[in-house]
Every structure is written in C-alpha cells, then in structure tokens.
Amino acid sequence: MTLSDLPSSTGRPARRWRDRPGIIGWLYAAPTAAVVVLLFVLPVALAVWMSLNKWPLIGGPHTLNFPDNYAHIPSDELFLQGIGFTVTYTVLIVFLLVIVAMVLALIVEQPRRGVGILRTAYFVPAVVGLTSSALLFYGLYSASIGPINPLLQALGIIKEPVDWLGTPTNALISTLILMTWRFAGFYMLILLTGLQAIPRDIYEAARIDGGGPFQIFRYVTLPLLRPSLALCFVMIVTGGLLAFEQFYVLTSGGPDNSTVTMVMAMFRQAFSLFDLGRASAIAVVMLIALVAVNALQLSVLRRQDP
Amino acid sequence: MGSSLGASRRLGAGLAAVALVMAACSGGAATAQPATAAPTIAPAATSAASTAAPSANLGVDDGTTVTMWTRSVTAVQTQALVDAYNASHKNKVQLTVVPFADYLQKVGAAAGGNQLPDLLGGNVIDAPNYASRGLWQDLTSRIASLPFAASLAPSHIQAATYNGKVYAVPHVMDVSALYYNTVLFQKAGLDPANPPKTLADLKAAADKIKALGADYGGMYFPGNCAGCMVFTVFPSVWGAGGKVLNTDGTVSTSDSTESVTVLDFYNKLFTSGSMMASSKNENGTTQNNAFATGKVGFALLGSKALGTIKETADLKMGVAPIPSSNGGVSTFVGGDVMGVSSSSTHADAAWNFLAWSMTDQVQLDIFAKALFIPVRTDLAENQYAKNDARLVTFNKLVAQGQTPYSKNFFQCFNDANGPYLSMMRAAFFGTDAAAAVQTGNPKITTCLAGS
Amino acid sequence: MTAMSSSAAERRGIVRGLGSATYLAISGLIAIAFVLPLVWTAVSSVAVGPGEGAPGITLEHYQRLMSFGAGLPTYLANTLVVVAVTVLSSVVVSVLGGYAFSRFKFPGKQVLFAATLAILMVPHATILIPLYVLLGAVKLTNSLVGLGLVMVMFQLPFSIFMMRNSFDAVPRQLEEAALVDGCTSFGALTRVLLPAVMPGIVTVVLFAFLTGWNEFISALILLNDGANYTLPVALVSLVQGDWGQVDFGALQAGVVVSAVPCLLLFFVLQRAYMSGFTTGAIKG
Questions:
Q1: What's CA C37's distance to the chain center, in Å?
Q2: Buried-most residue among A266, B64, C144, C189 (CB within 10 A)?
C-alpha cells in the first residue's frame, strides 16, 4: 500500500492526511455494516412495510391499505395529545438538564481538593439503569414507603403529604426530577471536557481586557462551548421526543392521560390494540420528524460555529 | 474527519427501553357475557352431550415437553398444577411466568412471529380477543367429550367462545366481592353476620365506620385502576338487572339507568368522604395495603385477596356479594383461561394437561385444598370449602356472576389510557356522574367498534 | 504573573468568587442530593418494611429475591451471558468500524455512518416486533446470544462514535510510521493504535455493559423461556407478580442487586473511562 504525504524531514508542516481509499476500508467497516443492515435497516424496512398494510396479528393475509394507517393518525386523540405533552416535556427537560449540567461542570472544573469525589457523586446516578432508577423513584414517591413526605413534614416544610404523582403538574415535575437526577452527571461530563479544552490564555486575555466573571462566561466560555452544548442539545432533544419508559413506570401516562407521550400512544396501538399497521405508521412519522428536527438543530447550531 | 458533530446522537446506555407497565390492570377483569346471568351449559354451540361418551378425549401422555405461558397473577395456582402434573406424568410442562402487566406485549410479539407456546393462558377478558384473532386451536369437541363438561365455569367457557367454537378452558377463577373488616363492624355497632346488601346499606355502614375517628376510612377504592373498576363496579349493575354491553360487545351501555345509579352512588360516597380521598389516585398496585392496615371498613377485592391479605388483631375479613341498588346478587367472574395455541405442534400432549387439570381429583386436592376456587360449579360445596363460609360464598358466586364479552374489551376498558377510565374518573370524582357518562360512554362505543 | 500562581479561584469567572465554605456547602449539598436516593434504597433493602413487624434489619427481601422463580443465580448468569456477548461484540465491531471511519475512504462511508447514528432516532419499541419476526426466521429468538446481538445494535451509535473520535485524536504520524516500517493496516491497528485508543475502548466496554445489564423490554419480548430471563425481567416479575400489592422490599433489593455491579465496574474503570471521555468526546 503506497502512502503519500509523509512528513518531510526538513520540518515542513505535515500536509493534511488523506484517508486511505480502497476495499480495505470496507473490510473494517463490514461488521458494522452487517449489524446495521441486518439488525436495524431490515427491521425498519419491515416496519415501514407493515405501516403500508393491514397487518393482522397472527397469520392472515397482509393487504395493502395505504394510506389508511397514516390517515388514521390525525384522529388518534391519544397521539395528538401526546404530541403536545411530549414537546412541552422536551422543552422543560432541555432547560433543566443543560442548566444543571452546566452548573455541575463549572463546580467540578475547579481544581480544588475533593473535586474528584464531587464528580463521582454527580455521575453515579448515570450508571444505574433507567428501569432501576424509575422503580427507585416510584418507591420514593409512593405513599406507602416514600420517605420524602415524612421528612418534609418533620422539617415543617409541608403540612399535608404531597401526592407526587397524583396531579398532572406534580407528575410532570416528579418525572423531571427523576430524569435530571439520572442524566445531569452524564451531560456534566460532556460539558466538562468542553470546558477543559478551552485554553487558559483566553481567560487571561479577557480578564486583562477588563471583563467581569459573567461577561467572560457569556462572551468567551459559551461560544467556545458551542460544540459540546450542541451535542447535549441534540441528545437531550432526541431523548425527550422519544420519552417513554420514565412515564410508563412512574405514571402510566396518567393521571387522566396527562402524561402520555408520543411513543406511549404508539405503544398502545401496537400492544394494546394489536394494530401493528397503525403503530408502524406512527413510528415512521416520528422517525421522519426526528430526522427533520435534528437536521434543523444541527444546521442552526453549526452555522454559528466559530 | 473535521467537525466532531455528525448527525444527531444520543447516549444509548441509560435510556435502554425499559417498558415497565404499571398501568394495565388485569386483576381479573371480566368480559361481559351477552345478556343472561343464568349460566348456560358449557360448550355453547355443540350439543354433543357426553352422556354415554365412549371415552373422554384425554390427550396423549407420551413424554412430550410442552411449553406454557401464564400471567404472573396466576403463578401460584399454575405452579401447583404444573408441579403435580410433572410428578405424575410422562409429559413435562415447562412453565414460564410472565409479568401480567406485559403479558399482552409478549403474546403480541410471539403471535407476530408465530412462536406461541403450546399452552397459552390469558386473562379471561382477553379470551374473545385471542379467539377472534386465531391465537388458539379449536377445542370444542375435546371439551364436549369430558364427563364434566357441563359444569365448567360457564362464563369462562362463553368468554372463550367465538363463532360457536370454544377455544379455551377455565384455568383459574377470581371473583369479586365485598370485603369488610368485622373488627371495625363490631366497633361501629354493626352486625358482622349481616353485611350490607344494598347500596344504601353500604353507604350507611361506611359512614358509621368513618365516624369512628379521623384515622378510619369507610371504603378504599382503586380510583385510578380501570381493570379494578370493571371488576368491582359491573356486579352492582348486573345485580340490578342492568347491562354494560350489548350482546356482541360492540356497544357500551354504561349509560343505562342501572349503571348511572351505581356511578352516582360512588360519586356521593366520595364527596361525602366515606370513600377515602386517597382512593382517587390508587392505581391498583397497592390497593390491598389500605384495607390491610385494619383502618378501613370496606374494600372491593377479588377472591385471591383472601389468601394474600394477612388477618391481624385489627383486621378480620368478612366477605359478601357486592351490593346492588335492589339487593340483587352478581359478581365479575374473572381469572384466566387457557388454550392450546394455534402454532403448537403438540396439541394432544397439551390437551392432556388441560383435561387433567379439570378432573375431580386435581380440582379438589390441589385447588380446593389450597383454598382456591374450583373451575367447576359442581364442586362448589366441597369438603374443604365448607370449613370456611367465605369460600363457599366465592364458589357460589361463580355460578351467579358474569364475564363480559367483547373482542376489544382490554383496550377499551382495562387500558389505563383508554376511554373507560376517563369516563369513570370523571363520574366518580367530578360533580355530575350522569353528565360524565353522557360524555364518556359514546367514546367507549367508538373504541369497541375499532378493528 | 504565572498562570498557576493565581489561585484556582481566578481561573473561572463565576465560581471563582465563591469562598471555600460557600463552594463546599453548595457543591456538597448537591452531591448529597444525588447520592441520597441510592443510599435510601440500599438502607431500605435491609430494613423491615412498614407494617411487616417490628422495625429492624432483615435479609428477607434478599431471600425472596434469591429464591424467586428459577433463582437469582440463574438470572444473574443469564444476564452475564448477554452482557458478555454485548461487550465483546461491541468492542470488536466498534474498534474495526471506528478505525474504518477514521482512517479510510470507502464507498458508502457517509451513508453507513448516518445509518448507524439513525439507530438513536428509533425507539426500541418500534423495531422490536419486526426484529422478533426476523430473528424468529433464523431461530435466534429465546436466545441469550440473539438478545446480546440486538443490544450491540442499540449500542452501536455510541460505540462507533466513541471509537471514531478516539481514533481521530491519535496523530496519523504514529501509524504512518508503522506502515512505512512494513506493518499491514491491521498490524498498525493492533500494535500502535490500540494502546492509544484504550480509554475509548474502556468507555465502550462500560456503556455496553450498562446496556446489556439493564435492558428490559428487549429481554422481555425476545426471551420466550422463563429460565432464560435476565435480571430486569425477573425483577419486574417479582415486584409486580401479584395484583394488589407491590413488593417494595423486593423492589429495593432488586434495585440494589441491579445497580451494584454497574457501580463497581464504574469505580474500577473510572480512571480509564474519564480520560476516554476526554479524548473521545467533543474537542472544542
């Protein structure tokens, strides 16, 4: 295999390396391609196919019924309701997670003593599975064994026990707390590496120029953090729009269907109404929407990349 | 690669899809059987009576391994059966207990992949659904050949009947009843031997118990659990002669006079405080707890609760049929049925288990002895039950109750996101039960009409 | 003025103004808030439940968990098999794949990368039934290995992304030198690059483990046989088994049993993992 662009011994700066072309790259990528095609593309293709058909659960002929499955979506009240709630939830969780993660990252960025312990403590919840976390919080919020109400009452902060999952607002807030607890540490790490990559001299220069702490943060730190923030945004938004398990465990979409998400509505189509055709149609619509949303996000965030 | 940002990404680790269902209450919801409460003879269509049937079809016992799925709520009974069967037969049953809340997902996926187990159990209210989708094999003639075919729990047999063919047999029975705390009865000056028979009596008694003190509650009710509601509210409607569904289960008749009366009763019970305020958000998963503390007078529970809730100095349980407006008696005959799945290649061996499970010896020595309800009405007053009057009550209720019948029962009634729960909550906890029914009932009918 | 002579407080604007005490108080309280739920669960798992008798220490929740169904050891073993498949396969696929994306040009490269990342945009519930149908056709349902491979797919975006970035961070001179010396690309990979991307690999290992260990719905749907259940499925069966009561004690014990291996692995790998994040994640 011939190479080009070897560094010159005269010390001229190395030219930009070109990726090696050829079949060998494909060989290395082949296992990845196998997994992606066999275990992802094929099932998705099948799901798309199912969305075009009337798909009885067992046996039976699959008859093309496009666009019925899709045409049904606007009349699926639960799904429509789910759209509104999912968007609301996503907006809230983005704000919450980004702000909390940013604060945590700023805290552990300091080279003070004990910062390693803090970093570990903040990250530890991210290691627990989402089911386990949701079950854990289910216990925390429960009327029978939950310690929060007795604690708050003993401290005199509240008089009556709070029904953490019993009203739409409470249910939403309780779930937001669960998700912040679970994911703040992870996003803290992403922002932390972004923070650590900012050269110190820039801060020195800004301070010499007379910038105060908040100005430095706004005009120096944030812009340089853009890639990390963009990554966080994309991940949190995707996760928010696809939210499902946390509500499934904590609230079952209640009280009174106030916390039903889009995926939950799709789930009901598939596993309660056994209508795989309609469920697949919802899934396809959501996939297209997600791709669009993320493409939009990235173009907005990338355009301003310094 | 230049920019580190490619397409969207999300960390997969924590967000592994954990679909834990707390919603779908499948606590033995019943499927409304068309009209009559009078139990008809078991195999609905065939009249191939087994008077002098040459030989009952008992399947084949030849050492086959047979796979079985059952819902976790019947794990205890099913395990008892499987253990006894495996110990005494050449065939071996391989039992998989599936969390009940996720049962439909598992069945749906397996059906889609044509990989159902040989023996497939299911909530009796799902029986019409499974039968109509072809998940089970036709068992009509096999059932008819059994000597005791006529005494198999009629509502279960009817629930498993579709287009005149029977697709499953009763597996585990669970009927709903009114539980009351006799200790609190005595404290409140009520007669434990005389539980309330009408709704008015019930309210009066609940009021008295609530009056015992601030700690006490009249009734605890799972107000956020659809399956529990069908299980315990329908009997009051049926007892008064009302209906909740039309004959083929496509129209909801919760707007009938009898039904609205019952809903209005509960509405008043809640507003007056005799139904504990915390009932509103009880989704059923902890519904036994409040009653188990001994501070609540009444709870509407299933027969299984008798074995599950422990009696203490504060709690001694009495059991009575669920009251109705005029004292008529009914119950929701819930529980599970079991059939041979259509993809099974071991039908004869599978049937061997089913037929065996319903014989006298098994029903008496395994079920009745362990204080479970037998699936046969002719064994209602067996020697084990006679020791405990409460068991006799349950057993008798089997013959007096109904199982509602509808293909789409689960998704329209039991489902936590379905139209029935919305209507019931508005009726129970809103200001006007009748108005809530006017708004909500048509939505149930729309749902029932779905594919 | 040297960069290090000014105290840490001067390096960052907003947090700099905080004196030691304030900093400690705020950061400490937050740390406690984060750790407290786990501590509560652990403590509750060995405590007698409310209404179950005199308060005290008990191991009964763990005992119930141990003897449930096919027995906790069986479920743990099953889960370990799934995890082993997931971790090993993820590492192999993502190292080779990351190498390919970072260093090579081949037809369909962008498409493949985009398709890999698209996996993140599809909820698991969506493709589980089609997956079940397809796996059934090749008799891989009810198989722990099959489940492991499905987990590899779900983890693939993260694994590939992490490894590609790790490779990107290694200067090309390193392997070009090896190639000039006569190594094949594979030789360059194993001898020169692997050590350099080890932190990234460790990160992939950690997250593949977490996914394989904690996944519930795929395990529930794809495993027909109760004896094959993994820990999350068994846990849910136990907790929700009977209608009308949630076994909170078993729930706490189960959460502890589920979380402890993950925490252990995290602590063991922490050093390597943290630096893996630094080299493999976003550079500013």
A1: 20
A2: A266
